[in-house]
Specification:
Layout: H1 2-8, E1 12-18, E2 22-28, E3 53-57, H2 61-73, E4 77-81, H3 84-93, E5 98-102, H4 111-121, E6 127-131, H5 136-144, E7 148-151, H6 156-170
Length: 196
């Protein structure tokens, strides 16, 4: 879990250990004099990226932590839960702008069920289904629910692009929807590591 998170955040992790004495884990972080904040408006003035409320549904704790850290680094406001029931409880308190849901949750629970139930409360809620299952039935269900599907492993740049496309598509009547800036569509200098 730690290795995945440090790789995702591009942080160097090291460890020293002495038998019968203990271990020391170190994180190398860059020193900055002033924290720079950037508000990236990729949607429109009424729905800037830095205010985007994202509901993440995944029953794996480490995935939820990684997603929360990634989305916060973009300036989003993530809300993380692990089931349909907990997603509904959150959505009744605050309407998310978009949902990212893993297909397979605990027991008979699924991301598709979560999105169906959420859309009963908030119709036309933008949503993305994350899955490693390429079964035609899963894809058929996703198409029925008008869901964009991302197949694992998911790279951060793919997720960012999917969020933009899904949000634009679901809000296509917005007169400002074409005013999009995509600062991450640049040549990658380093290979990405998947986090989902």
């Amino acid at each position: 879990i730690v290795k995945r998170l440090t790789n995702l955040l591009n942080i160097e992790l090291s460890m020293t250990s002495i038998l019968n004495e203990g271990s020391v884990f170190s994180l190398d972080l860059p020193v900055v004099l002033t924290a720079e904040t950037q508000q990236i408006s990729i949607f429109n003035d009424e729905q800037p990226w830095h205010k985007l409320s994202v509901l993440v549904i995944d029953d794996e704790i480490e995935i939820g932590i990684g997603m929360e850290m990634l989305l916060k680094s973009l300036g989003c406001k993530p809300m993380v839960c692990d089931s349909t029931a907990s997603a509904l409880a959150i959505a009744k308190q605050k309407t998310p702008d978009i949902v990212l849901a893993d297909f397979r949750l605990r027991g008979n629970d699924t991301g598709i069920l979560s999105i169906e139930k959420l859309r009963e409360i908030h119709p036309n809620l933008p949503a993305i289904l994350i899955t490693g299952d390429k079964n035609s039935d899963t894809l058929k269900q996703a198409n029925t629910e008008n869901l964009q599907v991302l197949y694992k492993p998911v790279m951060p740049s793919d997720l960012k692009q999917a969020i933009i496309q899904t949000y634009k598509h679901q809000n296509k009547n917005d007169k400002h929807h074409n005013e999009i800036d995509k600062p991450w569509n640049q040549t990658k200098s380093e290979p990405e590591e998947s986090f989902w």
